[in-house]
Structures are given as C-alpha cells and as structure tokens.
C-alpha cells in the first residue's frame, strides 16, 4: 500500500513538474501561429503601381513603385529579379485607320521585368496582332499597370517561421510522448500481479489499488493540460505536413505536365512559368518564351506547324503518357496495392468503425503521393482532389500514433481522421470551410461538436501552409477566380434548374455504367492484368484527346477557361465575337455581340470533348492507380453549362424583343454570362455524381471567390439531387462501398422492423394452410 501511494505521488510530482515547460511550449506555438498569420495578412511583397492618364487619353505607362523601402527593394530585385507586372489591355482594331476604343474591357497580361523601377506595358506581346500594330499602337492601349512584387527576404522569413513551427511542434510531441511513457511505465510497474508473488486472496484489493493508481495518474496528466494540448499539437502537425505535401505535389505536377511538352534551357527543374519568369517577351497566358524549348525543337525540327512538327509533338505526348501511367501502375502493384482508387469509400468505411489493415500506412502514403503526380501528369481523365483526402488521412493516422492518447484508442483516432479528411479537401481546393462540411456531410458517421472545431482548425492550418509555401500561386487565394460584372436575372433560374436536372441524369448514368464496368473488371480476366489495362486506357486517352484542344489541355485549365467571361482582348476561339470596337461606351458595360465562326467551332469541339470525357472517365475511375473524380465531373458539367450559356446569349442577341429580355437586355448590354452557366453546370454534375449538397455549394463559393451567385448554384444542386435520387439514392462512393463488400451502415436504407411474434404468426398461418 505504501509502495502504491509512493508511486502515485512520484507520478503526480513528475507530471506537475512538466506543467511549466508545457505552458511555455504552447505559448511559443501560439506565437508562431500568430506570426505566420500576420506575415500572410500584412504582406509586404505586394506593391501597387499606377499609370495616370491625361484628359486626352494619352497614357503614361512608366509607373513607379510606391513602397516605403523602395531603395532596398530595388537592391534586392537587381540581384533576384522577381517582379510581375499586370497590364490591362483591350484588343486594337485590325484596321489601323479605325480609332482605338480604350473603354472596352481589358484582359490581364503579365510581363516579367528584371527591374522593378518601371512597370512598362509597351512591350507586351499580343500574338494575334501583327508586329507593326503592336509597335505603333500598343502604348495607346494599356491604360493601367499593376505590379506584384515578391521579395526574397519575405519568402525567407516565411520559410523560417514555418520551419520554427515544425520544430516547436516536434519538441512538444517529443515531450508528450516521453512524459506519458514515463508516467505509464511507473504506473504499470507498480501494478501487482501473481507473477510478482501476490497471493490470490488479495487480488481484489490489489485491483482496487490499480484502479485508484490509474485514476491518480490520469488526473496528474490532465493537470499538465496534456489532455487538451496533445489534440491541438497533433492537429497542427497534421496541418503543417499536409500543406507541405500538397505544395510539393502541386509543384511537381505542374513541372511534369510541362515536361511532356518541352524543357527549360539551362534549368530542367523549372516548369514553363518559372522558366519564363524573368523574361520581358513573355505574357502569362501565352507560349512566347525564348528559354522554353519543345521536344521537336531539341530534335532540330522548326516549330512551323508542319506535319513533322505536329507528328513529333503527338508522338512525345503519347510516349510520356504511357511512361507516367505505366510507372504509377507498377509502383502501386509492387509496393502499395491500397494506393489505388480514390480512397474516399475506404475512408468512409474506416470512419464507420471497420478496420482495413495497411490502408493508412506509411507505404500507402508515400506511393500514393508519388503516383498521384504521375497519373495527373499523364493526362488521364482523373483528378487529385479525392486522393488528397486519402493522403491526408494517412498523415493523420501516422502522426496520431506518436500520441499515446490516440495510438491506443481507435475511437479517438477516428476523430483525428475526420479532421484529416477536412484538411484533405482544404489543400485540394483551397476550401477549408468546405472541407469541414465535406467531412461532416460525406465521410464521417460520428461528428461531435469538438470534432467540428478541430476539423476547422486542422483545415485552416493546412490551407495556410499551402498558401505560404507555394511561391508561384496567382494573386487570388481561390482556385477558379471569377469576376462577373453582370448579375443574374430571375428568368435564368429556369436554365439553371435544367442544368441541375441534366447534372442529376448524367451523374446517375455515370454511377451505373462505372459500377457495372468495375464489376466486370473485378470478376473477369482483367483483374489479372491491371498494368496492361492502365496502359491501354492511357494510350486511348492520349491518342484521341491530343487532336482536340479542349481534351489536350489540363482539366483544371479547361475549367478555368470555361468559367472565365470573354473580353474583347481574348484570343480563344470561345471568344470569337463580332464586336464593334469603334463605339465609345463606359468601361463597365459590355455590349452583346454576334458569335463568330470560332465560337461555333469551339462548341462543336466542346461537344466532342463532353462525350469523350464521359466515356473515358467511366473506364478510368476505379483503375489500379490513384483516381479522383471531382475535377472530371466538374469538367463535364462546365462544358455543358458553357454550351447552354452561349445558346442563351445568342437567343438574347437575336431576339431582344422577347418579354423575358425586355427589362434586362433592352439597352443592348450583354445580360447573359456563359461563364456563370459553366460554373453552375460544374456544381450540378458534381452533385449528381457525389450527391453532396451543402458542402458542395460552399466549396464552389470558395473555389470561385464570388458570393453573388450562390443562389443559382443552390438551385442547380437542389434539382440535381432530386433528379439523381429519382434514379438511385447511392452516390458513387456508396456504390463502390457495396461493390467491394465493405461493411457499411447506410442511414438512408430502410429496414423491416419484424419481431418474433409476427414471424411465428406467419409460420403458423402457413402450417394451417
């Protein structure tokens, strides 16, 4: 008895001694977080420059940087050269005798300057204009210039603060593990047992002492605030690691996608944007870069759009796709079979209480992270957003095993996994709030209030670290930023509802066809040759998709293009409108115009792209490689929405006297925004496939950064959910759970509440008859 009490006192004393150290560590961690958030909010690396215009519209374009430490910035940039100027320029008339209308909408053109002393827009290269027009007229077009200045010192400070945060978290983790192990060891050593010579007649008394001892030890640990601090430190570590891993994956994916087309001279490790960062002859949206060399150019073939040039580009495109896809398939088959698929169905199963051994292991995490880069760069019809949830859950499972409170308790660890799934969506889309709602609505079965708050915190840390580490992100914090100048009108709720119904139909069709094909794959000889099947799908995707501009480009870039409204300076075929550039109008008014031949040609290729994406994604989702479905589903919906949006726009142009257009379009303004229809269609199709509602609306809001169009998205999602449920209530993830025979408790499934009495009565009636 005296030994037990002495041990309890020693344990309590050891725990109390660590209280001061733990408080200091928590304070340092909090201060580090505050410093990081302050460095993001008070960002000294963004400098504005202005271009004052005179009354006669003559524009002075040599804008001067305004900054308190301008001299030091100039000194830094003379060494590093990292300034990005944004010029807003309209399209000049091809006929030089016509006046230039500088009041037309501008397109953002980015020029890399080696010196920030002057932000000049007179050297912008517009590829669709002849050289004489550019040289003689371009200085009259660009009436606004903005600079984005990125200081190397600021980046260094952020890296240092993030590194300090990681060190502090590691120190706290080490102290928690060490202290908990010592206390647990003292307690367990003091427990009596028969092996140590305890007589059987005192076993009950010893059990009472054990319970009292363990209670005292737990109280001592709780007094050190380890009970609450360990959870927050665990979430901080998960968020930091998730953000860092997502940054590496994003940068590696961008580099490997550009590697399929060419290489940077003298710096093969840079992608196209990084390679052309400091060149003045490069615009952000174009391909004019003297340092970037395509693979046909390396072979001595002149890029003159000849058959040989086209064939060599086509051949390298196919070979690179086969190489990346085949390497990913071999890695998954050899090292981590659990790295295949999306991972969301299995995460839902694990969070429901079922154990899948090895599914959240370190090998699964490593292999899936590498293979996700390979399959996205291969150009397959899949995304990396779904696998991000699986990867971050692997991170959460690995980190939680360093904390005894979660390593020994599966129920507590599932709370960490719920927060990890929210962080996965947060780093995938840059949508922390949507990630929390996704975890609540889609993957978690048990979601108490404390898990909600912890999920929000983990998603916030992950999104912040991703934003801070990635140095080549755009000036917006959202993935598909839109800036629509015209509000939607009440009549447009009808086509929005039709888009929602179409999303529900195409989503239900996709679920049925994909599940059927996955069942055939699982029960046929195809299951014995997964690598050959992946190579065949990669060959078909690259061979057919290369010849269509909209299937050859990356899916995220295609979605961004479809979301973006057309301006008069856009060179895409989607924006080939016959506009009158001689009329003087106000800056914020875009007059409606007739669609040119390029628009109709684009609609034809978009229709082919929609059919191809739908068919090839059915065969791609479920392969033995990491496969995500968010981006392919959004792509199909965005294509459909853009087609319907252009149709509505041309109806308003050709029939302006209809009663539905008289109030909104009577002045000739463009009252229809095809990009808005693309955004609504993307949300509708994604809802039809995943059956998400509230979380999807919030994710779309965070993706686009525009809250004015939440109502159209809500209408489309609601109709998509209704129509989809009419064909089947299962989402694609629930369907794959049943396909793989995972144990699952479906909250929407109805069970017959039959009792023994009713069963006996039925048997008796059967016997009497």
Automatic annotation (TrEMBL):
It is a multi-pass membrane protein. It comes from Aceria tosichella. CDD domains: ClC_3_like. This is H(+)/Cl(-) exchange transporter 3. InterPro entries: Cl-channel_core, ClC, TMEM9/TMEM9B. Keywords: Chloride, Ion transport, Membrane, Transmembrane, Transmembrane helix, Transport. The keyword Transmembrane helix applies. It is found in: Membrane. The keyword Transmembrane helix applies. It comes from the Eukaryota. The chain crosses the membrane at residues 21-42, 157-177, 229-249, 310-332, 365-382, 388-404, 416-440, 489-513, 525-546, 603-625, 631-655, 676-701, 707-724. Gene3D superfamilies: Clc chloride channel. One of its GO terms (molecular function) is voltage-gated chloride channel activity. Its main location: membrane. GO terms for cellular component: early endosome; Golgi apparatus; lysosomal membrane; plasma membrane; synaptic vesicle. Pfam families: Tmemb_9, Voltage_CLC. Belongs to the TMEM9 family.
């Amino acid at each position: 008895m005296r030994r037990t009490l002495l041990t309890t006192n020693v344990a309590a004393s050891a725990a109390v001694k660590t209280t001061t150290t733990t408080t200091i560590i928590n304070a340092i961690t909090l201060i580090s977080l505050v410093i990081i958030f302050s460095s993001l909010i008070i960002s000294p690396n963004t400098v504005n420059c202005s271009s004052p215009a005179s009354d006669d519209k003559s524009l002075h374009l040599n804008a001067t940087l305004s900054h308190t430490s301008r001299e030091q910035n100039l000194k830094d940039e003379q060494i590093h050269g990292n300034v990005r100027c944004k010029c807003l320029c309209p399209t000049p008339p091809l006929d030089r005798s016509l006046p230039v209308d500088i009041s037309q909408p501008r397109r953002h053109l980015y020029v890399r300057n080696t010196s920030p002393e002057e932000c000049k827009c007179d050297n912008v290269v517009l590829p669709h204009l002849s050289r004489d027009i550019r040289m003689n007229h371009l200085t009259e077009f660009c009436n606004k210039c903005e600079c984005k200045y990125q200081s190397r010192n600021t980046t260094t400070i952020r890296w240092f603060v993030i590194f300090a945060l990681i060190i502090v978290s590691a120190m706290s983790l080490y102290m928690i593990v060490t202290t908990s192990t010592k206390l647990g060891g003292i307690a367990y050593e003091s427990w009596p047992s028969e092996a140590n010579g305890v007589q059987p007649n005192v076993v009950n008394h010893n059990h009472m002492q054990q319970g009292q001892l363990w209670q005292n030890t737990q109280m001592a640990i709780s007094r050190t605030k380890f009970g609450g601090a360990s959870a927050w430190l665990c979430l901080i570590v998960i968020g930091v690691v998730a953000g860092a891993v997502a940054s590496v994956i994003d940068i590696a994916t961008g580099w490997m996608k550009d590697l399929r087309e060419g290489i940077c001279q003298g710096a093969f490790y840079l992608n196209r944007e990084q390679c052309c960062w400091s060149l003045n002859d490069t615009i952000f949206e174009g391909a004019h870069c003297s340092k970037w060399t395509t693979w046909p150019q390396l072979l001595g073939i002149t890029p003159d759009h000849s058959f040989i040039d086209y064939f060599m580009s086509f051949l390298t495109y196919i070979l690179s796709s086969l190489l990346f896809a085949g390497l990913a398939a071999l890695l998954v088959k050899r090292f981590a079979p659990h790295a295949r698929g999306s991972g969301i169905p299995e995460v839902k199963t694990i969070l429901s209480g079922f154990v899948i051994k090895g599914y959240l292991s370190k090998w699964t995490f490593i292999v899936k992270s590498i293979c996700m880069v390979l399959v996205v760069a291969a150009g397959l019809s899949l995304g990396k957003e779904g696998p991000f949830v699986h990867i971050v859950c692997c991170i959460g499972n690995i980190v939680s095993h360093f904390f005894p409170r979660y390593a020994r308790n599966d129920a507590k660890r599932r709370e960490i996994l719920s927060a990890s799934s929210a962080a996965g969506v947060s780093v995938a889309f840059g949508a922390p709030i949507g990630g929390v709602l996704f975890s609540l609505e889609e993957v978690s079965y048990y979601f108490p209030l404390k898990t909600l708050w912890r999920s929000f915190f983990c998603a916030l840390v992950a999104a912040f670290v991703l934003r801070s580490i990635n140095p080549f992100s755009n000036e917006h914090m959202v993935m598909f930023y839109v800036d629509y100048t015209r509000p939607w009108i009440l009549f447009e709720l009808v086509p929005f509802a039709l888009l929602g119904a179409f999303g529900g139909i195409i989503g239900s069709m996709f679920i049925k066809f994909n599940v059927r094909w996955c069942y055939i794959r699982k029960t046929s000889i195809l299951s014995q040759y997964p690598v050959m099947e992946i190579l065949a799908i990669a060959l078909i995707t690259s061979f057919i998709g290369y010849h269509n501009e909209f299937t050859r480009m990356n899916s995220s870039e295609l979605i961004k293009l479809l979301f973006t409204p057309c301006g008069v300076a856009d060179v895409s075929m989607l924006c080939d409108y016959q506009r009158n550039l001689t009329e003087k109008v106000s800056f914020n008014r875009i007059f409606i115009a007739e669609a040119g031949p390029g628009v109709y040609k684009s609609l034809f290729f978009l229709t082919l792209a929609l059919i191809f994406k739908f068919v090839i994604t059915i065969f791609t989702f479920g392969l033995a490689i990491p496969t995500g479905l968010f981006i392919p589903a959004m792509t199909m919906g965005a294509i459909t929405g853009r087609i319907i949006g252009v149709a509505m726009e041309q109806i308003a142009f050709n029939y302006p006297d209809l009663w539905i257009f008289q109030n909104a379009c009577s002045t000739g303004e463009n009252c229809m925004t095809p990009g808005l229809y693309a955004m609504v269609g993307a949300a509708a199709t994604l809802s039809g496939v995943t059956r998400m509602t509230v979380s999807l609306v919030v994710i779309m809001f965070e993706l686009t950064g525009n809250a004015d169009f939440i109502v159209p998205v809500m209408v489309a999602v609601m109709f998509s959910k209704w129509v989809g449920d009419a064909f089947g209530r299962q989402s694609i993830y629930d369907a794959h759970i049943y396909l793989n025979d995972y144990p699952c408790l479906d909250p929407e499934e109805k069970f017959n509440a039959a009792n023994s009495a009713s069963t006996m009565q039925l048997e008796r009636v059967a016997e009497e008859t």
